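pinned: reference chain
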Amino acid sequence: MTDDDTPWLSPGERRAWLGLVAVAELLPGRLDQQLQRDAGLTHFEYQVLAMLSEAPGRTLRMTALARRTNATLPRLSHVAKRLEQRGLVERAGSPQDRRATDAHLTDAGWAAVVAAAPGHVCTARALTVDALTPEDVGHLTRITAAMLRRLDPEGRMTPPD
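pinned: its structure tokens
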């Protein structure tokens, strides 16, 4: 592609793009900071616990959990080991497939995610939703859905309706 063929961003598109990049860079750190301070969890650890808390029987195959958290299996295994050492998660061979490993949220893990959720929701709300009008929230929902159709065509990370 030559310089003449490059579809450069208009000034308005550039502002929107740079704003999106800034939010994508800043938001995870702020969520991580609150969760570490208040619950002793990283944002990723919280996501792992939250996904397990929503699963039937609070159990997911590690590969499914990796998809739901957008993690590689090595990263998820490392974090699951830390959560296991803290008594929040248990890993065991899957009864349905001896080659697979299931992750299960323990009672302590359930208590941890239940205790962390209110502060996390308040922080997420304060940093995002509370800054928007109800109309803005509708626009954001449509915008993120359009982006996710391209970024996540399989719907692994797409929120339920």
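why pinned: Residues 26-151 form a domain with the Arc Repressor Mutant, subunit A fold (CATH 1.10.10.10). The chain has six helices and three strands.
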